[in-house]
Specification:
There is one protein chain. The protein is an all-alpha fold. The protein has one domain. Helix content is 86%, strand content 0%. It contains three helices and no strands. The chain has helices at residues 2-31, 35-61, 69-87. The two termini are 26 Å apart. 0% of the residues are buried.
């Protein structure tokens, strides 16, 4: 289940953030009047990417490092009882 969820998030998140960054860069380049403005547009795009990476890194720090054995073990013990109850 977790592998499927991770796969979906990766396949949707990557293109979504890429589109967001490309749209932001296109908007900034559209507003640019000189070559200096072009440089600042790419700088702003780079800063947007840095900000997104920092935000996603902070969010990843909140993920658990591992599952507790106490949490994982009752699920394995409940499975036969659940299957037995469903078969009746």
């Amino acid at each position: 289940m977790a592998t499927t969820s991770l796969n979906i998030v990766q396949r949707l998140g990557g293109p979504t953030l890429t589109t967001l960054c490309a749209t932001f860069l296109g908007w900034r380049l559209g507003m640019a009047q000189s070559s200096t403005s072009h440089s600042s547009a790419f700088t702003a795009g780079f800063l947007l990417l840095c900000g997104l990476h920092a935000f996603l890194f902070a969010a990843a720090l909140r993920l658990p490092l591992s599952l507790d054995k106490e949490t994982a073990q009752p699920l394995a013990e409940e499975s036969p009882a659940l299957l037995e109850a469903m078969s009746e």
